Structure formats: C-alpha cells, structure tokens
Amino acid sequence: MKTIDDHIQKDRVDIEAAKAEGNLGKVRHLEEELKGLEEYKTHHPEDSHDPSPLEVYCDLNPEAPECRVYDD
Hints:
The chain has 72 residues and is an all-alpha fold. The protein has helices at 4-21, 24-43, 53-60. The termini are far apart.
C-alpha cells in the first residue's frame, strides 16, 4: 500500500469479502488490523505512509520490549 488510507480502504473491502465467504477467522484478523490502523492514524494525523505491523504495534504498546529504543 502507498498510504494508510489505501490500506484502511482495502481492509474494509477484504472484510466484506471474507464475511461473504463466511471466513470468520479472516474477518476477526482484518477487523483487528483495521482497528490498529485507524488508531495509528488518529495518533499521527500528519503522517500518511502505510505503517508496518511493528509500527502499529509499537504505537499501541510503547512499553513492549520489542519497542524499546536505546540511546548509545
């Protein structure tokens, strides 16, 4: 994806397709991803790039060990 808005729109389309197929596992996964992307977007309104899953995770969980940044 080029922008976070493109990714959000694609997830919405994919959720509807997964619902039509009856693939509830995929629906849950995409809904969780969509929720994280929307929250990331509210925290970074000036940033339009499509964040990686790690960026979204660290934005939602800054205290997680994977998200720590050490200064030398």
